[in-house]
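Reminder to self: tokens first, then the designed residues, so the page reads top to bottom the way the pipeline ran.
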């Protein structure tokens, strides 16, 4: 092999190695892909949707109410849910109305608001204290719920999640393409 060809191949190999290293670093520390499994986030997310999770964004800025996050539910599974309660909050639902710190909160992420307005039960009544025994969301914890409230295993069942369990915030739904969405 000629010297010029060898140099060119080494240059290409070095470039590919650097690109692979950058891709591994970005995948490990910055962004990750997630597949929605189940119907607990309907109508916002559907079974099989593909998402991009921002792993560092929430470490730079605080997690906010109504952010959609992915977290470690146990050692084998990650869940995607919506943040409802932040540290220090009181949470309750009465007659399909969400109360945060005793103030009614609009839930603009619901596309089917006519269901919420009707006499149909969308979310069973509860208080945070009645579910967890705690009056407020503890420091470094979050209260999360699925958007499909009648068909979601969430903080009403397993309690608070810690901020350390959060993998990241959902930034993008990229599959199916006709449902491309960056407004999470």
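Designed residues (184 positions):
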């Amino acid at each position: 092999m000629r010297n010029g060809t060898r140099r060119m191949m080494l240059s290409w190999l070095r470039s590919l190695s650097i690109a692979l290293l950058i891709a591994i670093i970005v995948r490990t520390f910055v962004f990750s892909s997630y597949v929605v499994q189940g119907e607990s986030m309907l109508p916002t997310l559907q079974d099989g949707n593909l998402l991009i999770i921002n792993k560092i964004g929430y470490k730079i800025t605080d997690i906010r109410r109504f952010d959609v996050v992915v977290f470690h539910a146990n050692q084998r599974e990650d869940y995607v849910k919506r943040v409802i309660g932040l540290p220090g909050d009181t949470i309750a639902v009465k007659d399909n109305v969400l109360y945060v710190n005793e103030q009614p909160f609009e839930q603009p992420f619901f596309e089917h608001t006519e269901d919420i307005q009707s006499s149909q039960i969308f979310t069973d009544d509860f208080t945070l204290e009645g579910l967890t025994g705690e009056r407020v969301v503890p420091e470094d914890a979050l209260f999360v719920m699925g958007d499909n409230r009648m068909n979601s295993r969430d903080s009403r069942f397993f309690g608070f999640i810690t901020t350390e369990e959060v993998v990241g915030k959902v930034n993008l739904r990229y599959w199916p393409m006709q449902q491309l969405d960056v407004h999470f």
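The chain has a mean pLDDT of 84.
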